[in-house]
Amino acid sequence: MGKWNQEAEKIMMERFGKDTVLALSTVNNHMPYVRYVNAYYENSAFYIITYALSNKMKHMEQNPIVAIAGEWFTAHGKGVNLGYFGKEENAEIANKLKKAFAEWIDNGHNNFDDENTIILRVELTDGLLFSHGTKFEF
Predict the structure, then answer these.
(1) pLDDT at 23 over 90
(2) SS3 category, 62
(3) Is residue 1 predicted with pLDDT exceeding 60?
(4) Alpha carbon of 96 to those of 5, 59, 108: distances in Å?
(5) Nearest CA-CA partner of 62 in 35, 81, 83, 84
(6) Tell me: the pLDDT tens digits for 102-120?
(7) 0.90 exceeded by the pTM?
(8) Could you give the C-alpha distances from 134 to 7, 35, 125, 130, 137, in angstroms and in order?
(9) Backbone angles phi, psi at 118, to 5 degrees
(10) Which pLDDT does position 54 carry in this prediction?
(11) Is 95 helix (H, G, I), strand (E, B) or coil?
(12) d(C-alpha 123, C-alpha 48), whole Å
């Protein structure tokens, strides 16, 4: 995968390096499925707290290729299940997600004692970003 140039990476962090609602698309049996997710961006990837048994994760088990779209941005990526939110290997990104999602993370929707509460990383493979008339691709 290519990397965004420095200017594009700065725009990505400003726009998406916080709690951001994005459209995430998966495919199952040749049928696309789209849902909105709360995501946090860092280093050419989006991070999402989700449930391991959700349809999106079931779809990605069969086909990890996804599409994601946000404000003047669209990309493809690979969905990677990082596993349980509370496991030691996830501590660094989990702490960032706790801060980014502080407004709602403890509203009862997530059960952090349940090992099916996981972190999904969408590793971007290609993308298109528009900002003030400038088009960035990788």
Answers:
(1) yes
(2) helix
(3) no
(4) 23, 26, 19
(5) 81
(6) 999 988 888 999 999 999 9
(7) yes
(8) 10, 28, 20, 6, 10
(9) -125, 175
(10) 97
(11) helix
(12) 11
